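Renewal narrative, Specific Aim 1. Our central claim is that a sequence can be written position by position from structural information alone. The example that follows is taken directly from our test logs and has not been curated for this report. It begins with the structure tokens describing the chain, in the order in which they were read.
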């Protein structure tokens, strides 16, 4: 008689059946602790039956003196199972929360994995602890929904097959099958709030409310439903509210404050920005709605900059290259790479259009940053004007103005992308010329539609 599969294996198999198809790739986020080790064994037992490719990745945060030993342990674990393991070292930039910084570094690694799914071993107890942490930190509906069993995280889908399984059941499975694991010594340090909840608070709760795990899980599920409803409302509000990937402020003005805040949160999330807390979100909405007509509001975040420009909100990747004193000699190349701006300048030979070739041969031709003062006269019907005025008239976005190359012949500004060519340098009919074309880096963040509701 065939032995019945273990109940935990049956549960994980049912979960995988809903998401993973034959031929797809699943990568386990492997720490070496009991949860991820058990998950690795469970998925290994199912991989041949369901015909998915199984691999593992271990992120070495370099925070523990035992970190290198854990990496070696995981290599020895995966080797006999024939599971390919990738070990990645990261440098955790500790801020207010070491746990959050380590998580951010870890998820950045997961995003780069060449896989269809990253399987993480978060369990029911982790869910309860996360709910408690976020409650104490004043999280909103989305935060209190805690973790989801399936979530699209940028370029990869996160799976949590053990999210409804208690830590006690996982440890029992490990003992039943003689599975060994390593312990992170930081798990006993109650300086960290998660460990304080796990070791001091929740055991007391369990004495009065033995079923607290299921109760909190149910509450988180209700909040997850509410969060999904809020997203669906935001999706409806965002339909028709985008202009070239930017969010029209007029749409926010027509909505109630609560609904406008919800749309703003959803838009920023769809641009893959870290979540703002409620006070920061409220302040951003206030500034967007009260800015004077024509105002160019600018809000700097860690890695992005938000602009209100011509009645819309744009999300732009923050540039670290703001220096204007760089320059390159142009020596008649047809293509010139500009590292300072991460772009390419093309000079196409022509006749009677673009820049007069003869005018460029008398002096040194430079490609450089914007110089103080000066102006440009690209139109013979109008006088020379300041660059700022031209940028405004031609609706050149403020975040692009410092990311443009300026072409000089001697001390004379000849050409600026989007603004045109100085009148005296414009090619005459039937005369040799060059036509400059600039291809810069894409800096505006375009919103995406989520593949899965959280």
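The sequence written for that structure reads:
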């Amino acid at each position: 008689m065939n032995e019945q599969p273990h109940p935990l294996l049956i549960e994980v198999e049912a979960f995988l059946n809903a998401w993973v198809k034959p031929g797809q790739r699943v990568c386990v986020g492997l720490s070496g602790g009991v949860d991820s080790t058990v998950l690795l064994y469970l998925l290994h037992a199912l991989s041949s039956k369901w015909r998915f490719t199984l691999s593992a990745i271990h992120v070495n945060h370099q925070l523990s003196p035992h970190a290198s030993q854990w990496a070696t342990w995981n290599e020895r674990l995966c080797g006999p199972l024939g599971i390919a393991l990738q070990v990645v070292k990261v440098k955790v930039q500790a801020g207010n929360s070491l746990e959050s910084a380590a998580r951010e570094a870890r998820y950045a690694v997961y995003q780069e994995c060449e896989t269809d799914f990253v399987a993480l071993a978060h369990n029911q107890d982790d869910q309860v602890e996360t709910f408690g942490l976020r409650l104490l930190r004043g999280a909103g509906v989305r935060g209190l929904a805690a973790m989801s069993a399936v979530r699209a995280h940028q370029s990869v889908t996160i799976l949590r097959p053990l999210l409804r399984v208690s830590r006690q059941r996982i440890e029992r499975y490990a003992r039943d099958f003689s599975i060994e694991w390593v312990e992170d010594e930081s798990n006993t340090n109650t300086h960290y709030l998660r460990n304080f909840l796990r070791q001091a608070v929740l055991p007391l709760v369990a004495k009065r409310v033995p079923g607290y795990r299921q109760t909190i899980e149910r509450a988180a599920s209700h909040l997850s439903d509410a969060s999904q409803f809020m997203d669906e409302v935001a999706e409806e509000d965002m339909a028709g509210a985008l202009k070239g990937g930017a969010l029209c402020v007029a749409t926010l003005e027509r909505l109630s404050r609560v609904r406008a805040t919800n749309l703003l949160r959803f838009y920023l999330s769809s641009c893959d920005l870290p979540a703002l807390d409620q006070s920061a979100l409220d302040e951003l909405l206030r500034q967007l709605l009260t800015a004077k007509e024509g105002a160019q509001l600018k809000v700097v975040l860690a890695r992005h900059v938000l602009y209100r420009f011509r009645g819309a909100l744009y999300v732009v990747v923050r540039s670290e290259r703001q220096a204007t004193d760089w320059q390159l000699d142009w020596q008649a190349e047809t293509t010139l790479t500009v590292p300072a701006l991460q772009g390419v300048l093309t000079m196409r030979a022509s006749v009677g259009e673009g820049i007069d070739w003869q005018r460029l041969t008398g002096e040194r031709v430079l490609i450089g940053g914007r110089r103080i003062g000066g102006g440009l006269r690209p139109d013979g019907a109008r006088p020379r004007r300041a660059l700022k005025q031209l940028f405004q008239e031609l609706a050149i976005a403020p975040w692009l103005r410092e990311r443009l190359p300026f072409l000089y012949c001697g001390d004379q500004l000849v050409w600026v992308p989007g603004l045109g060519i100085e009148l005296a340098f414009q090619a005459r009919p039937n005369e040799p010329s060059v036509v400059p074309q600039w291809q810069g880096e894409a800096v505006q963040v375009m919103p995406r539609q989520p593949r899965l509701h959280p």
